[in-house]
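User: Is it possible to get a 3D structure for a protein together with its bound compound? The compound here is adenosine-5'-triphosphate. I've pasted both below.
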Amino acid sequence: MTSECYVYIVLPGETEFVTAGRFRLRETTEGAEVGDFIYGRTYRERPNAVELDPVELRLQPGRYETAKMGGFFGAIRDAMPDAWGRKVIDRHVGGQMSQFGYLLRAPDDRAGALGFGLNTAPPFPENRFNRTLDLERLQQAADALIEGKPDLAGSAAEQAEDLLVLGGTSMGGARPKAVVEDNDALWIAKFARTDDGYNQPRTEHALLQLARHCGIDAADSRLTTVAARDVLLVRRFDRDQADEGYRRHRMVSAVTLLRTDDDPTTRRDWSYLLLADEVRRVSDAPQEDLRELYRRMVFNAAISNLDDHPRNHAILARGNGWRLSPAYDLTPFPVISQERALALDCGLYGRGAYKANLVSGHGRFMIDLEEAIEIFDNVVETVRNEWEPALRRAGVSQAECTQLGRAFVFEGLLYDGSRP
Ligand SMILES: Nc1ncnc2c1ncn2[C@@H]1O[C@H](COP(=O)(O)OP(=O)(O)OP(=O)(O)O)[C@@H](O)[C@H]1O
Ligand SMILES: [Mg+2]
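Assistant: Yes, that's possible. Here is the predicted structure of the complex:
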């Protein structure tokens, strides 16, 4: 069986889609899925044409093929819904869909600048968004979906429809979310789950602030309250409002940069050092971006963000060139063990979140050992002094701080190889 669709893109500085090429997925006689993509000639001849990504789909004539990720090129997979969006779509159609089905069913609020459809001519981009006023309805629908309770605000299908039509479904990630418009910008609303265990929205907000204290370029965020519950609003950095609509910036995850997969069986390819190599190759400002990436890696270790998987890192093209995107999805894991591992290798000795390992790969970030140690010490000191005030300022309770405290600057982090 073969499925195919057109791939659209909003070019830098513009707000409407043009057709970039055609994506096709076919099953081989052995039952494997193979994807192919070809840029349209008209597209390639545009003076302002840009590549979909700087790794697999460089702007060249000819047909690209991939058998990875079920035949989905990284840049296309990055524009598709994840666990949350799929759940919503499943509920809406009353069953599970194929990957291709998710690609086409997802609404036009996906991360980055791409769109997909069956017509050669692109559609008009969706420019109407929910207001923060709609958040109560969205939160209720998200709750009902998670709890499998169809009777809170209409039928299950109606609620899924709310989420699907009203937005957020195409954004990746597993947590319930929606996209809303406020103050001339688009925000990802991340809802609390009733089974969270601590105040997730306030904590994530505090950590984005704490990251900024550490000199990290973190996504802009704020808190709001909807029906007596906290919701985190994270400003979308892949959209900017213009007079005639929204500009869309291309965005590619580290999954794509590393030519890997989400699946933890591909974990051997997950590495900050390899990511640094790729960033060095594609970034318009490699030195600055690598120093920033190094700082983020140390920060993730210092807050025990053990879920810093490759979809939680990205590069962004605000114009023609690529840069590291702002940091997002920063979550502390207050585990007991003093031996903690990040999701990616973070030094020459693997994933271990400890000083000797974290500073060991400094050369790959184009910094010398002295500077690596200085950044480590500086981030650790800031996190040590500021984590609690940052959480308290964001309204996290003292009891929750006590519960979360183990995540920050744990003893094992400081191991510098000098002790047995
Ligand atoms: N501020 C932002 N602007 C644009 N895109 C973003 C922003 N924040 C996150 N994203 C995109 O949305 C996806 C989901 O966001 P996020 O990682 O915060 O959600 P999550 O559900 O907590 O994820 P996870 O499943 O990793 O826990 C990210 O993988 C990224 O592609
Ligand atoms: Mg995430």
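Residues 154 and 252 are 37 Å apart (CA to CA). The longest helix spans residues 369-393.
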